[in-house]
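User: Peroxiredoxin. Structure?
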Amino acid sequence: MSESLTLAINTLAPTFDLTDIFGRRINLKDYRGKRVIVGFFRHAGCPFCNIRIHRLQKKHAAFKALGLEMIFFFESEEKVLKSHEFHVDVNPIPLISDPDKIWYQKYGIESSGVKSAVSHVTSFFQTVVEAKMKGLPVHMMEGNESIKTIPAEFLIDDKGMVRKVHYARSLTDRMKLETISKFAETGNV
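Assistant: Predicted structure:
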C-alpha cells in the first residue's frame, strides 16, 4: 500500500459498487442526496476498531435521522466478519469486506508498523479490557489481515464530495464525534 496517497478535501470520493456482508448492493452513487461517513477499519478482532464501531453504532439512529449514513470497511474476509455476532448485529450499517485492500488503496489507507507498534505498546491492554467489558470481539488476525493497517474516516457530502478526511495518527486516534455530529446536522465541518 502506498503511504503517500491521500484523498484531498473538496474532491469527488472514489465511487464503489460492492456487496456488503449482508448481501446488499452498496453503490456510493446511490447515497447522493445524503451525507455519509465512510470508515476503514483493521481486522475483525481489533479492539481499537470494534470500540469505535460500537460508539458509532450507538449514534446510528440519531445520525440517520439527520440524513447521515454510515458505511464501514474491514480488511477481514466476509466469513470472519459473519462469524462474530457483534459484526452481524452492526446491520443495518453496511459492512464491506475488502481482504485484498483494493478500496483501502483507493482511499489511501496507511500501512505503518511504527504507528501500530506504538499504539500497541501504549494502549493495547487497556483497550482490550474495555472491549472485553463491552462484550466486543478481540482475537488474533486471520488470513490477509495486517497488524500495520491504520484506520481512516471520511465525511462525504450529498454530492459525493469529500469534506473531511481523518487519517489516524495512532490506533486510538479517530475523528471527533462532535465533528461528525456537526456534519450530520449542517453538512459543514
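The longest strand covers residues 68-74. The chain has a mean pLDDT of 92.
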